[in-house]
Amino acid sequence: RKEVEQDPGPFNVPEGATVAFNCTYSNSASQSFFWYRQDCRKEPKLLMSVYSSGNEDGRFTAQLNRASQYISLLIRDSKLSDSATYLCVVNVNYGQNFVFGPGTRLSVLP
Amino acid sequence: GAGVSQSPSNKVTEKGKDVELRCDPISGHTALYWYRQSLGQGLEFLIYFQGNSAPDKSGLPSDRFSAERTGGSVSTLTIQRTQQEDSAVYLCASSPTGTGLYEQYFGPGTRLTVT
Known about the structure:
With 110 residues, chain A is an all-beta fold. Chain A has strands at 4-6, 11-14, 19-25, 33-38, 45-50, 55-57, 60-65, 70-75, 84-91, 98-100, 104-109.
């Protein structure tokens, strides 16, 4: 089993739709969780950290379920500019510290 | 403040040549990471530096790849005798600490093309 797995995608949704991405991780000792977005031919950029109580930033909501070891990202009222690949990132308590998921590509269509 | 910078932004080299890629992390960040990303693929971890500790080289694909970090700041990734399969974007990231509790900040990457 891979350390971090994500919905395979791609997701093609119309503008204004609500879309949810899921991510599962295997290391129960993980303490930090992040969602990054990566635009085509650009570097990954932090979208939001994921806190135990869940957190919201405008149209974006992140949830963490430690018992089931999964993280979710909800995007409401999708915009064309939300089109990107969304990367789930989990910290591990060894070596490189961060493990990236393979990413889920989102295309928001007009 | 200044983010992570990388140079060159693009590099085209002939098969068999050596290349050096440079990364300037955010000032004060103790952790530095190198990744590579082939077209349409995910991030592949290469090497990790934390302070003065020995680097984690577990991701380096072959002994043609090496990296150093001088004075706990600037890092150089060297690829010797480049091969066509080395063509990729090489991304550098830094983080305030080596605990993995804080996010990484990525540089814009170096696009390497081996002809």
